[in-house]
Each structure stands twice: as structure tokens, then as C-alpha cells.
Automatic annotation (TrEMBL):
It comes from the Eukaryota. This is DNA/pantothenate metabolism flavoprotein C-terminal domain-containing protein. One of its GO terms (molecular function) is catalytic activity. One of its GO terms (biological process) is coenzyme A biosynthetic process. InterPro entries: CoaB-like_sf (IPR035929). Gene3D superfamilies: CoaB-like.
Amino acid sequence: MDSRNGSVSETPLDAEIGSFFDSAPPLKDCDGIAKKLKDFIEFNSPPPGKGSPTGVVCVTSGGTTVPLEQCCVRYIDNFSSGHRGATSTEYFIKAGYAVIFLYRRGTFQPYCRSLPEDSLLECFECSDDSAIQVRQPYTEAVKRAISDHHAAVAGGHLLKIPFTTIFEYLQILRSIAMSMRDLGSHAVYYLAAAVSDFYVPWKSMAEHKIQSASGPLDMRLVQVPKMLSALKKAWAPMAFCISFKFTKYIYREDK
């Protein structure tokens, strides 16, 4: 969420982090996201003196993109299938937590592990009377996925918020942190998203598609500020944080 419009209180960010948010494009539907978060947190927070709040976990999942143009045609992508985040969300809900699932559009979703990759086309078929029905091999899997997903959402245990770019991801994450701040030690962050290390500042981008006729592309990327420190020290100082770091292992076989 953009702090410039006064919708969230300022936090003690260092100059580098503050510069990132100040120069980021405004988050679309920031008011709608803020309302969803507020309602979700309130639903999982009993009135004072009437029990402890439900543990709320923010699970991030999938990879962020770095747009190269403001009207984006090209971008740099941090690939992640989102399988870890989606699967972990199921287990958190099963353990009694409420989950805010911050996910990359098009990545794995909770309760869909048992479905084929192209589930819409593979799981359904047209009957003789042109009705849509589930194909027999997938009947139980589809029934279970739909039932579990709707139960989690209807029960107030799952809130899904999508992102695509590094700008959207970090602005929404900060908004989530501000919304969950009053939960104190009942807040958990499970940061499984693959977050870009470098980006092109919004004001430095070409507005429209970069033309290949201009010759070789020479572009300077800026390092994304390390937001984990801000999350732990300023945004959610009492929360429990879990983060993951990708490590590439090279296997060599001596011949």
C-alpha cells in the first residue's frame, strides 16, 4: 500500500527502503486490499477478554517480475512454481491457523496438488446433452479440491491476494504487515516467494515497448532493498518469521 496517500502509518524505514516505496507506481485497488485484510484480521481476532486471537500466517508464494517498461511488454522473471507455498498453506490451515496467501498469478494454488497441470481441460468433459461434467478418473480429486477450498474461504481461514511485479509484492507485503501488527506474537510470516534481487526504478523505465531498432539494450538494474530486516524490526517486530534462500547445488561425477 502506498504510504503517500495516508492510508497507512509511517514506519522507521531507512532511506533506501523509503526511496523504493516513494518511487514505486501506485498499487491498484489498494483500498480494496486494505478492506479485505481488515475484515479478515478482525474475523480472526476475538473481542478483548474473550480468548486469544487465531494465529494468522502470511504465506508468500511464487516469483516476482521486474518490468522493463511502464506499459510492460518485457520483464525479468524470478521463476517459482509456488508449490511450496500452496502446499504449506494447506498444512497451516489444517493446523488451525488462518492464512493470508500472497501469491503470484498463475502459480500453484492450495488444494490443487492432486489435480493435473491443465486441470480445466483434463478434468472436465461435455456430456451428450452438452452439460459439463467431471471425468470419472478425477471425480474424487475435483470434489475434494473444491470442497476443501470453499470450506477454507467460507470459514474465514483463507484470504488469497495475487501479485505479479516486485512493486506489487512489496507494497502488499507491507500492507499485510501493518494490518497484522496488532496480532503481535500471534502473527507468522512464511516467506516462500522468489523475490527479485534487482529492479529497474519506475521513473527510469521506458514508458512504452523498447524498440529493437535502437540496437543493443543497455540497462542498469538497481538492487532491491533487503525488506526482511524492515519486516522484522519495523513492520512486525513481534512476529515469527520464516524465510527461504535458494541455493544451487552442482553435482559432478568423476569419470
